[in-house]
Hints:
single chain, alpha+beta, 3 domains
Amino acid sequence: MNPPDDKTLRPRKPLLRRWSLWLLVGVVGIVALLGAVPSVLGSKWLYQRLVDQLAIEGFRLKVESAQFAWFRPLSLHGIELEQSDRSDRPSSLLSIESITSNRSMLGYLLYGRDLGKLTIRKPKLDVEMLENTSNIEKLARSIENSSLAPKSDQAKTKPKLDIQVVVEGLSVAVRRQDTDEELMVIPPVDLDLHYLALDGDARLIFAPTRLLDEVQVTQELVRLGLGRAVPLLAKSAWFDGRVSLNFDKLEIPLERPLYAKGRAELTLHEVRSGPSEPIVVNIIDMIAKLRKTDIPQELVFIDGSVIQVQLADGRVEHRGVQVGFPKIDQRLQLSTSGTVGLVDRQIDLGLGVPVPLEMLARRESVQQIGVPQVTLPVRGTIDSPFVDWKSLRGESADLLSLVSAALGDEAPGTAALIDLASGVTDGKADEAIGAAVDLIKELRARRLERKARTNTESQNGSLKQIDGRQIDGQEINAQEIDGSGKDPTKTEAPRRPLRDALKNILGGSSPDS
């Protein structure tokens, strides 16, 4: 017999077994490759090259280290954005200690567009005020002109995702160009915000927070937005004091960020300023002339006053601004309320001006009114405000009615005339004319009755004119109308300090004019 062939005796491997082996090798290779991805992404030679691809003209981004893992949270450490176009000394714009996610790489794959929470620790923003701009605005323009900016309208749409960002220990320093002196420092604050776009238009929603805590008032802070909330500070020559800012609610639509919605409280701490706006300067000069004393060109804001601020429809509304002159009289106060446009810079304000009736009136009953306020409607823009005198009628009527009520029975004729003036001022001309006819009849009847009682006196000696005028052909007794008992014909011009001062104040003239 022939010996058996070795080839015929060796069993052949099943095809399925061979493919299983290759499949196992492939799976192991894929797993090894996937396992190496975090290490590759976390290697500095790779992520720094990726960062370099994000180059922005004039700026350089650096990352000290990165940690990527399938089952551990992702994080970046030592992030810094600096201006690279300054050969003399590179200037840091933003530095961040770390950015940490609450999700791993596997978590991002499982949750899709819901990116969870990012925690940014100890970011510091160094704002440099350049001529008519800042390094922040310069960065924004560089991004718009870089390859990062979307070129098509479709690419410009905000990403459809949701993410929560928690900022721990954000600090801001503001300084002028080429100087190391810090003009303003915002102490570390914490922020909690959400970027939401999955259920509608992209928007940022900020949780309630204390953004400023007794921060020094500076020209830069006013320029960055404080002047919109407190217009009396907008064009001041100098500042002193501190402010605190609490946000109760803030929502910013990213497609139209100037149309943000929110509420805030601004607290003033020993704030003073030197006004340069002509309207305010004229008011101070008027008070100084009435008081016959020198008043420093200084606005002293009520210490601890809380200003309510609201954002809506592209405008900033404020209520509760009060400014006094404590060195002269605690009762002399200016007040403002109204809105300022973020887009068109249009203003619609009410400027409360003190009217020192106690110094203008001769009657004690009117003097006891003290120092009421008349609200001047201020229109125009932040740069060119003006007083809308035509809209002042209602406030004038209220003040005249107050004077009339104070006169009461002491001088009924004067009170009646002031009531008529308040009706005309308030826009009720028809009613005022009708009342004037009745008043004239009543005054005529009183004159005839008085004439009958004093028939022993001559007619020319018993009747006295007011300001050389007659009503319906009949003279009115000056003592009945004026109540002072003095003959106005004995002076070159009748003195009416109350009327003239009110006219000057409400008409925009100085008291001496």
